[in-house]
Design goal:
Largest sheet: 7 strands, mixed
Number of strands: 11
Radius of gyration: 13 Å
Order of helices and strands: EEEEEEEEEEE
Helix content: under 10%
Length: 114
């Protein structure tokens, strides 16, 4: 089974930036698409962004459009999430997910303080 490992989370002030990374244990070519999800305390998990591996087509949640950018580097088996203009409401655990299958990483905490 493929392993996904997220990194890059942390504590940042509102208006700041973070870049999350999701490293896969095998080639990204085995995935149709990969996405970033987040879950805040007491809330359901929501999709933040996704990218198709072959064509690089991207999709974003309304709350992050224009602020977050998802990308992938196939040679590094890694998917990134660049997060700019962070807001306190972006605070959550961020998870990486790959399809097909139900492949999840362990999550990385992002905390935005005002």
């Amino acid at each position: 089974q493929v392993q996904l490992v997220e990194s890059g989370g942390g504590l940042v002030q509102a208006g700041g930036s973070l870049r999350l990374s999701c490293a896969a244990s095998r080639s990204l070519s085995g995935f149709f698409d990969m996405g970033w999800y987040r879950q805040a305390p007491g809330k359901e998990r929501e999709q933040v962004a996704s990218i198709t591996i072959s064509g690089g087509l991207t999709n974003y949640g309304d709350s992050v459009k224009g602020r977050f950018t998802i990308s992938r580097v196939n040679a590094k088996n890694t998917v990134y999430l660049q997060m700019n203009s962070l807001k306190p409401e972006d605070t959550a655990v961020y998870f990486c997910h790959g399809r097909p299958g139900d492949n999840w990483g362990q999550g990385t905490q992002v905390t935005v303080v005002s």
